[in-house]
Amino acid sequence: MLKPFALQVNKLEKLQSIADFGLLISAIKTHIVSSIDAELSALELTAAQYRVVMILAYNGRSTLASLCTEMDYDRGAMSRLLCRLEGKGLLDKRPSETDKRSMYLSLSAKGDAFIPNIQPKVNRVFEKALSGFSHQERDQLSMLLLRFLNNLK
Predict the structure, then answer these.
(1) Is the Cα torsion angle 142, 51, 152, 20 positive or negative in sign?
(2) Residue among 53, 14, 32, 63 nearest 125 (CA)
(3) Would the pTM count as exceeding 0.85?
(4) Phi and psi dihedrals of 38, rounded to 5?
(5) Measured over all CA atoms, what is the biggest interatomic distance in the chain, rounded to whole angstroms?
(6) Where residue 85 sits, what CATH number does that domain have?
(7) Rounded to whole angstroms, how far apart are CA atoms 62 and 48?
(8) Quick one: which of 19, 53, 86, 152 has the fewest CB in 10 Å?
């Protein structure tokens, strides 16, 4: 069996090319997702499901197509993820008033009530990742990541 790739802190000085920078970003994402999965396992929620719940919490409602675009999922994978959330009673589906083929997705009352249970667990992941960072460094990292993201849009 192959061991998963892991970047080691003592090898960071070797990261010189854009490709290596991409590798670092990819490794960070992988570790964040697996850490969130571990934190949320007691709630029987995955990092991907958490992301949908939070997108709906912030946006109020969405469609399958919008969520696919936002999360870079294909329709089949997103449909399965949404079915699992609906089965847990966290989602409501309503037909669109303007397009009868579309459904609007929103959090159910249970989904809204679930957020206070989720957020502290996810926050623990990021507190661990940011341990040793000053408030100024956290703010700077946040600004840099937002600029990075906006450059790609």
Answers:
(1) positive
(2) 32
(3) no
(4) -65, -45
(5) 56
(6) 1.10.10.10
(7) 16
(8) 152
